[in-house]
Amino acid sequence: GDPRRLLLVSNSTLHGGGYLGHCQQHIKSFLGEKVKRVLFVPYALHDRDAYARTAREKFESLGYGLDSIHESCDPVEAVRKSEAIFIGGGNTFRLLKALYDNSLIQEIRKRVLEDGIPYMGSSAGTNVATISINTTNDMPIVYPPSLQALGLVPFNINPHYLDPDVKSTHMGETREERIHQYHEEPNTPPVLGLREGAMLLVEGDKATLQGVTGARLFLRGKKPTEHEPGTDFSFLLIDSNLQNL
Question: What average pLDDT does range 116-137 have in this prediction?
Fold first, then answer.
């Protein structure tokens, strides 16, 4: 069987709520009672101490201890000993570069895909869980050695997906157009556009859309499709070459 367990959240904060407030029940149900401590990865933000304090306060309020990887003298060993991993949002390029710099890509992959420890990501942390960060919304403020990410799922995600505003006079490209440009390149995988308030739960070979807002699925060469919470996206886990169907 496939041991992987992922909770991939579009955003950390939903309008009108506090940090991870909109998904805290999902987090509790996802981590359950076996997990006692969570390893937090704050690399996406510059002020890692402040970020760790925010995350620690939230997770402690849910009944979990939290260790921040930036406080460890040996990040690789911290991953090897972790019961669960949470990678927070911020700048995806900064995050991925730090994962490479600390030799954590293969270590996290092994812990999640082979050992089956729970992995939670929000925003940039969701981006790096996928094949690559090609479909992030962030500016490349630093230069990671590769855009290839953790590859915990065989497709890409666009967190904070925004629908075109029909009343807007802004003439720049819509998110949909940008994803279409990505799919103009050969052999590009599916892209799941997760709106604010949406999240994807992966348990083994089953993937389910959760949250309150829904998602938009983009397959190369196909018209995008709209999906409501509760949608079974397990087929995305089976074949990363869906664009060839």
Answer: 97
